[in-house]
Task: structure prediction
Amino acid sequence: MPAIARAQPNIALIKYWGKRDSHRNLPAVGSISVTLADLFTTMRVEFDDALSDDLLIVNACVNEDMLPRIQRCLDNVAGARRHPARIDSESNFPIAAGLASSASAFAALVVAADAAAGMGRDTARLASLAGSASGSAARSLYGGFAELENSGDEIKVNCLCNAADWPLRVVVAITATGPKPLGSTAAMEISRKTSPFYSRWIEQQPQDLTEARNAIAARDFAKLASVAEHNCLKMHSVMWGSRPPIVYWNSVTLECMQAVRELQSQGVAVFFTIDAGPQVKAICEVADESKVRSAFGAIGGVADILASGLGGGASLIDDD
Ligand code: 2P0
Result:
């Protein structure tokens, strides 16, 4: 039977950058993210012995580039002796542009493939499988604020706070469209091997995680803002210090960061974060969303603005 799942991308507030075991895709650091409600990937998986081979369709086009990674994930979920699969993936936001499309894609893939293969695993097990395919995908199995722990041999994720218990907004400034120059997996390895700041990044991460966990528990926006911006800039410093340097920002990225700083100086509850791409994500209180949108809208180079509340975890949906 085919199965369809939907998963949302997540935005890390305390970042995952670096692997402790690249073979098993175990992260070198813990991370904390928020899942977005309004951006999503819908994934339909059907195993069919009448097919001669696996077929991947992404946003209505046959995609062979991503197929090997998808096949490895399907083998892990359904076993290497599975039937060939037809996989249809659709995302309602730009893919491969630093909006965590691999997180929503692999989270949706494991949920749909598990159901299509009749395996019936629980969320913790599905998160571990998603994380083996793409580290950040493990967090998209959970809603609200999710923490990926860096301990043991299994990828483990906890929900720290449900979306409804701290309803924040995320406003994303798209500063460039099109795929990023270097994927995260390769970039992380370059950082691990060459950045003089990498070891300090790993050493300091537990402190940032504790600070963020406490801020979330206390719903303390200012504390979360401070540690999240610090952690984001520290991750980008690791990247900038790599050889060759890894710079995902453009001049509009910097203009958006400056706009957030100006809003902060006017007392607006907002902070920025930036992932492996040039987009700027502003996290704000619900009442301040329109001010953030206006500030980004006034920047000439901003190509588009997306906004979302915090969402739930990946789940199966009906075929209709
Ligand atoms: C994060 N990123 O925590 C960080 C911040 C990008 C910057 O997780 O190699 O695509 O597939 O495990 O999950 C992007 O990394 O990497 C990422 P793989 P993934 O969201």
Notes: The mean pLDDT is 95.
